[in-house]
Amino acid sequence: MDTLFILNFKRDNFSSYTKSTIGVEFASKNLTIKDSIINAQIWDTAGQEKYHTLSKVYFRGAVGVLLVYDITDYHSFENIDYWMNMINNYTEEEVFVTLVGNKSDLVQARVVSTNKGKEKAIKYNCSFLEVSALNSSNVELAFHELVTNIYKKIKDIEGLNNNLKTKEDYQYYQKSKTISIINSQPKQTTCC
User: Fold this and answer.
1) pLDDT at 7 > cutoff 90
2) End-to-end CA gap in the chain
3) Structural domain spans, the chain
4) Which residues, including other chains, have CB under 8 Å from residue 138's CB and lie 6 or more apart?
5) A Pfam family for this UniProt protein (predicted)?
6) H-helix or E-strand containing 140?
7) Strand order in the sheet with 96-102
8) Residue range 136-162: mean pLDDT, rounded
9) Pairwise CA distance, residues 141 & 9, whole Å
């Protein structure tokens, strides 16, 4: 599900054929934010339990997370609490999180209401958005909103560059930036 989401964003088009993420996949894309070109480095981490340890490693450099759940699968929505705990425990600094309800095109199959998603976002003080990776609805907006928040933080620190108040502020500014995508639903795989 999130693999399709990231591919749609990277390619600016829809492909119905995707393979499940095995471990972690990487993509990058240039975004224009306030007349600046930002190269967003995007790490797509697998939601499968066997890859959770690997996902922890990629949280360490993250400054932004798109936490994706499936609005047609309540279990994936319940997994948000687990992933928010992981984000809080394994990120090194303030991380911008956007909670993303995917498959908004499947209105009849919806089991997680928009209000439930908004309530969860309020609980974790993060932004919220519903998307459809199938028809690309709001996919670009989800990335753009997250990268804009990160950009604003960096520009605020850059504006203070001559008067950086703490060593942490300086390190945040100097550090390379990573955006992570987490799928709260384990992907189904078949073998043989």
Assistant:
1) no
2) 22
3) 2-183
4) 104, 129, 130, 131, 132
5) Ras
6) helix 139-159
7) 24-33, 36-45, 178-183, 62-70, 96-102, 127-130
8) 81
9) 10
Six token digits for residue 105: 């095109």
The vertex-67 CA angle with 134 and 23, nearest 5°, equals 85
- Residues contacting residue 122 through CB under 8 Å, at least 6 positions apart: none
Which structure tokens are listed for 22? 């095995």
Place of tokens 């340890």: 53
Position 96 pLDDT exceeds 60: yes
b/e sequence 141-177, b meaning 16+ C-beta within 10 Å = ebbbbbbebbbebbeebeeeeeeeeeeeeeebbeeeb
| Interacting residues of 114 by C-beta distance below 8 A, sequence separation 6+ | 101, 130
pLDDT at residue number 166 = 55
Topology adopted by domain 2-183: Rossmann fold (3.40.50)
